[in-house]
Fold these 4 entries.
Entry 1:
Amino acid sequence: MIQNIAQKKLYFIILLILLFFKNNVFDFNYYKNQYNNFKDNNIIEKNKNIKVAYYLTSIKFGGIARTITLLINYLSKINIFEHYLIIKSKKLKGEYIIPKKTKRISLFEKNITLFDVLEQEKIDILIYNFFNNDEIEKLNALNSTQVIYYNHSSFLLWIYKYIFNYQKSIYYAYKKSKYVLSLIPLENFYLFEKWGIKSILINNLATYNIDLIVPSNLDTKNIIMVGRAYDPIKRYDLGIKAMKYIVNEIPDSKMYIISNIYQKYIELIKNLNLEKNVFFSGFTKNPEIFYKNASLHIMPSLSETYPMALSEAKIFGIPTILCGLDYLALAKGGTVIIYDDNPHTIAIEAIKILKNYEYRKMLGKQARENMKKHKNQLIIKKWVKILLSVYKRDNKIYTITESEQDEKISENEAKKILNNQLKLLKKRIPFFKNISYNKFKYIFK
């Protein structure tokens, strides 16, 4: 009897493991076939892997570091590539984990340049994650190394940083570059075409696998804001001020800011008498406990590109309030978008969600459903396609597959989004008060 129970348990564990690998990790046959095809056709030399390098400041802080380390970890499971991490800083404590077989080179410790490394290591492909126009110009002149420019910014970010001049913008450099990755459909399929930039749409990898995450049950009155509180672009003051109205209607509501403490906001919390309702969690690389216990996510940012916090909240089935961020690839599904910078407007939507369980449950379900289109397995397949096309130096990289068609946006949708953003800019920046739609559309041309 005991033996039968033990056998059943073992069988169940093996079944779970098989299901995990079948549905949630990789289609290994796909990558094996890709690898063999390229070897057989002499596109990749018989005893050589493709050398891919990633250039970063460090792998300790920020969404870019998390995105790139996730990419290295996933691609390392495929025996086509040899990975190099080129960082500006020395090794830091508490970095994101990467495979041990990744060759790590610190420019600071070796006292060498990026170009020295590319030449010495004979790097085939560099994934570049900065916005240095002079450096991009030099990289574009290379013959032996192909460069992919991973654009982690939005054109609106530069506008909110008061860069309106095309010659000074990153887009002037991108126009002269062969391989640019875009994270925003509006830019990739509409604006970049008008500005003379050729780009490929990509989604960022998610921290969590949606098939392995149990969503929040949405039965708390907990609100979260996730990210760097000190960054003025995030505008967490709007969320904190909204809590003053929310608490009046829902006294037991709590807001958790998943970030290092920012003294300016501590003072704001005290001034609004919200010490019992708004809390800083401190920086954490494992925010799961907060997602599991949250019923609402607020993102009041001026600008975002492909925010990890939004993908994480949606994976956990948490509704999100966005302030005008309708151009994001993740903008649809489980979100409420407001075109107002008034904390009271944010509070009205938050109260509506927190007071109606069926409504927030519906939004949470929509959020999870939307994220199924952004599964890591699909994104990694696209990365393999991109890297192999770049290595081969063909133009198949720009071919839109059938599964990518739904990521395209129509001209009418693009026009609607741009008009929405222009209306917001007219409220936020005096320079745009008299700017027409046509001038705005070609601002970086």
Entry 2:
Amino acid sequence: MKPLSKNDLPAFMERFDDIRGGELVSLEILSPTTFKITLTAQDKNRAFDWVNMTFELHGVDDTKLLDDKALQAVDMQEGGNIVFTDEGIEVGFGSQEYLSSPLHLCAQTLKYEESSFTL
């Protein structure tokens, strides 16, 4: 897993086109303050091939969660949003706005990992 920093964020979001058109695959609660989210996204660096992406969020203190059955129903046409604030890193999926996102979390650290696309 690689940490995602504020400086790396613009290039990351451009590379994955703000996660537009992706699909949420799973949400795991690893501890009360640690969550793992797996999704698919298109990668500009790989000729827009699909990749699996895993986000691991630590120090989570604000959430709006969905169960696994509802994840695939989230419309990802608007993509996702990641914003560094004074309170932490706000991460949302399904909207460009954090509070409007059907799934969102605010964490102190965010790491990600890419892997080959699998169903």
Entry 3:
Amino acid sequence: MIALPALADDKLDPGGLTFRDFSTNDNGASYGGRGDPMIAGGPNQVSSKVVTVEGANGLARIQFSSIRVELALPLGWQATEDWERGVAYSSDKRYRVLVWRVDFAYEGVKDAEHYAATKAGSIQARRPAVQAQARKLGDGTFLVVYDNVKGPGDAEPRVVFDLVTQNRATPRRASC
């Protein structure tokens, strides 16, 4: 497996925030298989594998084996996966990361750009209050930002980011 970085440095300003701002210095203990039974995950949910811990940076590199993706996530978070996606979330559950693989032919789109535009449009059509915007970043990935999203169980509207990364080895697939 080759982990490629998503270089989202195209006019995206983190405001000085780093992984350390979202992490708890637990040296990766939160990823050790003590999943939260209150988080939905389906019948085949398992803890994800810790590849390495970078305590100085406040992050752990996590491997989601079922979807063949490796991510750097803040320490103190938890991560699980099932047969189709990887899920990570902060200890207070205010921040979540969901990762899944996309097959463009199955989705009926030709490439990452078409997928990003189609998904943004379909979400806005179903939920008119949601504002969606897609743009191509300098590294070829597509960032889709959904604002004013309020789903079942959400206490308040939130912002959702989709980063569509085309698979270089198999261009008809991507990870989101």
Entry 4:
Amino acid sequence: MLNLVKSKLFICREWHVQPSEIDRLQYFEFEQMCEEIEKYNKEQEKQSKEQQKQYDQVQSSMKNMNSVSNYNNITKQMNNSLPKISIPKLT
């Protein structure tokens, strides 16, 4: 009984279905609806994980690019900040 109530609550909240509409369903229809919702949720979770993985890969590559860029900037600044000395030639 508790699972039935939880399932109805979930369907009402997430899918914006009135409880009276769920009550009108025959039990096998309700079971089928719950199974389809479960499949849908698993598919959404799978897609979400794939997107997160892609996002993490992009962030990692951006971080690596930034570190290389920072290194290049630092070396350029060091080269620019070194004094230039000209040594006279003895003849």
